[in-house]
Design brief:
Helix content is 35%, strand content 29%. It is an alpha+beta fold. A hairpin with a 6-residue loop joins strand 3 and strand 4.
Length: 151
């Protein structure tokens, strides 16, 4: 199931470039990766099932070993976990949206919440390159969405 979701998502995605955010030893890091494959997405993801409608969702939930691997890919320190959690507490946005807004700020851009579908564009464009931004526990896509997009 995970490989099928990753492959389908990757085929439909407008970009294969990512900025992944995660916590290691109480520090929030980001790793910027280009040309990410479906296999990589499957490796760093997990399938969760919605308790209400039993829909399978592919989510960025790396294990400790996978975070250790991500730490070998030129990670950049974003902030402390405490600073990040304090930021989350002071606004109405979730962790993923807060992480996305930090990435915008780091690139001297103004962030606003949008509803752009992953099939049309990345979350941010840096130097002409679009990127999806995924913070720990972010959903890549769920089966119902992918089925609806396939038609």
């Amino acid at each position: 199931m995970k490989n099928i979701l990753a492959k389908t998502y990757n085929e439909m995605n407008a970009t294969h470039n990512y900025i992944f955010g995660f916590v290691r030893k109480h520090i929030v890091y980001k790793v910027t990766l280009r040309n990410v494959t479906a296999e990589t997405i499957a490796t760093i993801s997990k399938v969760d099932y919605d308790s209400r409608n039993k829909t399978a969702s592919l989510r960025f939930i790396p294990t400790v070993a996978q975070i250790d691997f991500l730490m070998t890919l030129n990670p950049e320190r974003v902030c402390t976990e405490e600073e990040f959690e304090n930021r989350v507490k002071t606004n109405k946005y979730n962790r993923g949206e807060n992480f996305e807004s930090i990435i915008y700020e780091q690139n001297d851009m103004k962030w606003s919440k949008d509803k752009k579908p992953f099939t049309e564009d990345g979350d941010i464009t840096i130097n002409g390159t679009p990127y999806q931004i995924k913070y720990n526990k972010a959903t890549f896509a769920n089966m119902k969405t992918l089925e609806n997009l396939k038609g």
